[in-house]
Amino acid sequence: MNSNKVVKLSFGNNVKRENLGEYTFSSGRADFLPFVYEHLEKSGYSFNKEFGQLLVEDKSLHLLSDSDWDYIFGKEEINVRYLDIVAPCNEANVDYYEGITFFFHTKEQTHLGMPHVHAEYSGNEISICIEKGKLLRGKFKGHYSKGKLALKRVESRKDFFMEEWYKWVANSQKLCGNK
After folding, report:
1. CA–CA separation, 101 vs 99, rounded Å?
2. 89-121 pLDDT, tens per residue?
3. What is the DSSP-derived secondary structure letter of residue 164?
4. Is the four-CA dihedral 51, 55, 60, 66 of positive or negative sign?
5. How many angstroms separate the CA atoms of 163 and 90, rounded?
6. 14-18, 56-60, 94-98, 116-120: lowest mean pLDDT where?
7. How far apart are the first and last CA of the chain?
8. How is the chain split into domains, by residue range?
9. Do the beta carbons of residue 9 and residue 24 sit within 8 Å?
10. Which of 164, 142, 169 is nearest to 154 (CA)?
11. CA 140, CA 143: separation in Å to the nearest integer?
């Protein structure tokens, strides 16, 4: 028996992030991806087969895979983010936590003088020093607690963010042909 689910669909790439809307889904699992693709197209986006990714958002952001179906359909609300990397060697989304997206600009190297990660929440962006877990630049206007949460996330996952920084930024010359 199918029950109604609220599907919140959003879009993100290395240029922008936007909420596309809330939709009611009442069909079975086999109809879910066509449903998502249809609403992406109605919002002006088509799925990029080379770089596009569908991710399910909870307290973390993870790729939509076959193992997720029982978990996904056990929820009343399903948050799906479509990521389409316009310039694949420009930005890398590496983490999502409590509505905060963490990412690297792969071509900027260390313009702030140290390894850092960017975090975005509600259209505002900050830069955080990975090694010290300190704010380098920006603020989440009107969302002070989210800024503190982002700093704590980086501090508590320092090894993860450093590993990702080396993977995406320090090695971007080799990966993307930076000089």
Report:
1. 7
2. 567 788 999 999 998 876 665 555 578 899 999
3. H
4. negative
5. 18
6. 56-60
7. 57
8. 5-84, 91-174
9. no
10. 164
11. 5
Matching CATH number, 5-84, of 2.60.40, 1.10.260, 3.10.20, 3.40.1350 = 3.10.20
Edge-to-edge strands, sheet with 61-63 = 17-25, 5-12, 77-84, 52-57, 61-63
Gap between the Cα atoms of 91 and 111, Å rounded: 15
> b/e string for 25-47 if b means 16 or more Cβ within 10 A?
beeeeeebeebbeebbeeeebee
DSSP string of 109-160? TTTTSS-EEEEEETTEEEEEETTT--EEEE--TT-HHHHHHHHHHHHHTHHH
Map tokens 């069909």 to a residue.
27
User: Tokens in use for 143?
Assistant: 């969302």
